[in-house]
Structure formats: structure tokens, C-alpha cells
Design goal:
Layout lengths: L15 H13 L4 H10 L6 H8 L2
């Protein structure tokens, strides 16, 4: 059974928690998109910096 997703994130492959964390990192700290990519990779989330661009433009 699929869990209900937040309507804003229905087209994305990552859960809302991952998207929210990436957006928070990017806007809260002076980080580049590649640094956000590396920080997510350290947590086991494989996403490219292009993916981070997509996530931050929600």
C-alpha cells in the first residue's frame, strides 16, 4: 500500500522529508548545490546537483 504524499511533492521521486531537508540546507547555509549533493550522499541519498536544483525550485 502506498502512503499518501504531500501534494506539492507528488511528481518527485524523493520523499517530502528529503526534499525539505535539501531545501533547508541550501537556503539556511551558504552552500553550493554540489555541497548539498555531497551532504545528502553522506546520508545515503544519491542525488545529482541538477536534482538539487530541481528540488530547490519547488
Amino acid at each position: 500500500m502506498k502512503t499518501a504524499r504531500h501534494p506539492r511533492y507528488t511528481r518527485h521521486r524523493f520523499p517530502a522529508e528529503v526534499i525539505s531537508h535539501a531545501i533547508w540546507l541550501y537556503f539556511r547555509f551558504p552552500l553550493s548545490l554540489r555541497m548539498v549533493e555531497e551532504m545528502l550522499a553522506a546520508r545515503g541519498i544519491e542525488v545529482s546537483h541538477e536534482g538539487v536544483v530541481t528540488l530547490t525550485r519547488v
